[in-house]
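Quiz preparation item.
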């Protein structure tokens, strides 16, 4: 819900995955090319790798990885594809944001072999020692997950404070349908397991907002009326951007989840404000409507400032802050009219009935 800033640390950890894929696909495009699968293909690849290792002008980083892991088998498989995968990958890379905006499409039908090869990169290769000693930093994907779960809420739902054990790395553009994006750094997002594994899974709706590029907080605000949480857009938000936000909500089932689980937090927040105001004016014999209003305003303001400090750290800050803003506009005028109509009777009694 809040933008996740792509940091130098994140770039150092998983940025090199991009260069790795470029190298592999570059090598796949080179000779030898295979058209018919034979058992000897691996030997041909191994021989080629040995040659390149001796070649001082060759600066491929993946050669040691290919020698020590199953990577060579998957390189063989990619060589059967007969597609210029490097160009396709680069095209996807350049158009990644356009893809999210539904302004560019990838219509390639990827083969099972290719999908499996990229799945291998993600599920095995990047978790392994040999890869991590050569590309990026040691155990980069684990550190990446650690870095992003530290004192952070889920960038999708903002309703879970993430912990290492209850987080996972999501492929924003699903790797099952778009395998070339399987270890594309900006496609990897650390999220809570509810959002990633139980709700989003392999789905995607386009156009859509993306946590590394968009701060959803700038586009809409929550409202809470008649016991229903809804979203409203700021007037200046374009139709396209509204669609992107709506698809984001749809993808993570946010409207339903918020209405099911977050409402009680708002009731609690309101109760807290009420209690604090009562505490402040307890024992005061006379107090004017304006003074009560000021007290409530102060309380709303203090609460707003306090919650703001924990944006992205505490759960549901976006919802709570929007609710406080709404209360400032709506509830205070109601309260003022109510108190006025009672003509200054015992205000504590009036307040209690108002807040119920
Ligand atoms: Zn989440």
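Solution:
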């Amino acid at each position: 819900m809040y933008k996740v800033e792509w940091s130098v640390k994140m770039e150092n950890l998983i940025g090199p995955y991009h260069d790795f894929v470029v190298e592999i696909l570059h090598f796949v495009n080179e000779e030898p090319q295979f058209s018919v699968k034979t058992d000897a293909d691996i030997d041909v690849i191994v021989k080629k790798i040995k040659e390149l290792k001796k070649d001082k002008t060759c600066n491929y980083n993946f050669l040691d990885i290919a020698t020590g892991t199953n990577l060579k088998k998957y390189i063989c498989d990619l060589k059967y594809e007969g597609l210029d995968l490097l160009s396709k990958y680069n095209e996807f890379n350049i158009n990644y944001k356009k893809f999210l905006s539904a302004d560019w499409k990838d219509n390639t039908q990827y083969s099972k072999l290719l999908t499996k090869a990229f799945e291998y990169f993600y599920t095995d290769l990047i978790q392994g020692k040999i890869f991590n000693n050569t590309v990026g930093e040691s155990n980069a994907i684990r550190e990446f997950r650690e870095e992003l779960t530290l004192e952070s809420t889920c960038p999708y739902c903002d309703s879970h404070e993430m912990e290492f054990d209850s987080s996972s790395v999501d492929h924003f553009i699903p790797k099952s349908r778009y395998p070339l994006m399987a270890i594309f750094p900006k496609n990897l997002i650390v999220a809570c397991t509810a959002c990633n594994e139980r709700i989003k899974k392999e789905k995607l709706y386009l156009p859509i907002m993306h946590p590394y590029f968009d701060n959803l907080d700038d586009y809409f605000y929550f409202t809470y009326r008649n016991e229903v949480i809804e979203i409203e857009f700021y007037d200046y938000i374009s139709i396209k951007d509204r669609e992107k936000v709506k698809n984001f909500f749809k993808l993570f089932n946010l409207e339903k989840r918020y209405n099911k689980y977050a409402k009680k937090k708002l009731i609690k927040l309101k109760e807290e404000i009420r209690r604090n105001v009562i505490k402040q004016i307890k024992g005061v014999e006379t107090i004017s409507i304006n003074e009560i209003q000021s007290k409530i305003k102060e309380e709303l303001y203090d609460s707003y400032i306090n919650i703001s400090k924990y944006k992205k750290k505490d759960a549901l800050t976006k919802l709570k802050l929007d609710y406080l803003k709404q209360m400032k506009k709506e509830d205070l005028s109601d309260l003022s009219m109510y108190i006025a109509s009672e003509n200054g009777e015992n205000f504590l009694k009036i307040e209690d009935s108002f807040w119920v």
